[in-house]
Design goal:
By secondary structure, the protein is mostly helical. Helix content is 62%, strand content 8%.
């Protein structure tokens, strides 16, 4: 994400040079920013099944600490309204299910995503409380996608792809992650 923030800083500077600092600050502070991160790190962590629960927690805490620094950089570039998606039920993506050779979701991968999400929600709440004028919104994609997995028929998908037993609507979504 550091590279994306560097790109945003360059874009911000271009905006300042075109419309002036005051107008740019207002424009940037009124904009809504949408950030989705964490999935690749969690998938990478899940590959190392020899790590203890304590080591997993330490890794997730380090992820959140780095993400906090990155969000502070975005805030310091005048972003104030920031929506951040939670990690999805990553144990249900075809890559993870194939890696662990199971037909259902991989429980320990989903547990890592949930542990990350708890920390993320706390972080966003703390940032909103301590950074003047900021609003950090936690977008719970985990629960939303879990509902689709469990209730796929109510979403108009009445068959399961038997080669990858997930609702076909999610096979399309997860292949895009």
């Amino acid at each position: 994400m550091d590279e994306q923030i560097n790109n945003f800083a360059k874009t911000r500077q271009d905006i300042v040079s075109k419309i002036g600092a005051a107008a740019a600050r207002k424009l940037l502070r009124d904009a809504l920013y949408f950030i989705a991160v964490g999935a690749n790190d969690i998938i990478s962590l899940s590959s190392n099944v020899s790590l203890s629960h304590v080591e997993n927690i330490k890794y997730l805490d380090n992820m959140i600490s780095k993400f906090k620094s990155q969000l502070m950089r975005v805030y310091n570039l005048d972003a104030r309204k920031i929506a951040v998606t939670s990690a999805a039920p990553l144990g249900c993506i075809p890559f993870e299910r194939d890696k662990f050779s199971i037909d259902d979701c991989v429980p320990h991968v989903n547990e890592l995503a949930m542990l990350y999400n708890v920390r993320l929600k706390i972080l966003l709440s703390e940032l909103t409380k301590h950074l003047a004028g900021s609003i950090f919104i936690y977008v719970n994609s985990y629960t939303t996608l879990e509902d689709v997995l469990q209730n796929y028929k109510s979403y108009g998908d009445d068959h399961i792809n038997h080669s990858l037993p997930l609702p076909s609507i999610l096979n399309v979504f997860f292949s895009a992650l």
